[in-house]
Fold this protein.
Amino acid sequence: MLDNKGFDLWSDDYDKSVNLSEQDNDYPFAGYRDVLNTIYNQIRVKNEAKILDIGFGTGVLTKRLYDDGYEIWGIDFSEKMIEISREKMPEAKLIQYDFSKGIPDELVDENFDFIISTYALHHLNETEKVKFLTKLLDLLNNKGMILIGDVAFETRKMHDKCKSDCGEDNWDDEEFYLVFDEIEKSFKEVEFTQISHCAGVLRLSNKIVDKRNILDDEVFTYKITKDKKVFISWRGKQVTTLSGKKGEEFIRKIEDADFLEKQLIMAKETGNFKRGNEKGRGK
Ligand SMILES: C[S@@+](CC[C@H](N)C(=O)[O-])C[C@H]1O[C@@H](n2cnc3c(N)ncnc32)[C@H](O)[C@@H]1O
């Protein structure tokens, strides 16, 4: 498995070698452009978005989004990849970090509309992937989405067929490819699209479900003070205070939200309805 120095060495040739593998419709990059386009088109539905790219590499996908005016953040552990991408996207917030260690400190208080990753997460095994993706779900805004494009298969049978078709010598046994029907049980809101014989796009979100329609009543209310502190109340009783970055983020989200969205945002902030599980605070 390549470490950050390995990716440093690959960085100058990366785009060329990906193109060759893609043109020949070969594992591992068959369908590469379509994977990136699928993610790009999904994001373009929104005019404004804050996006985090995990393992952005030479910035093939992120640069397009950057040029379209989206706010770009990224993590990569290769100094050379960061150098190449920084030149293309000077305003992007690019962080050097090894994602096998989790989420960098710079991101714990941030929220994103989209978290994307292409051809990078196969460096984590399935348990590590589930753990990492679960942490990423917590960085999503209300209605946010994680989009993962990678070497990926709907079933283990398809994975094994691809492995035997391409031959032991060409197959990288040190990488862990996503198998949808094995990983889907770990998430509530999850979808998968197979794009080529060896690539696919996984979508994850935190759809918050108000199963008992409690939020149709105005159970949550909020007040914003002059110094931008936010006080959230549940049925008239103050339950949460947000200040600093958290408060600003809340104000930004709440301003554009409709009635039910406002209720869901406040439910999420107070931890009441996390991922569809109402914790059932008493009336
Ligand atoms: C195959 S490239 C993919 C680049 C780009 N996303 C694309 O689709 O072309 C994988 C990228 O992930 C980065 N990467 C791999 N493992 C990583 C890790 N543990 N932490 C941070 N970055 C990592 C590499 O440095 C490299 O830039």
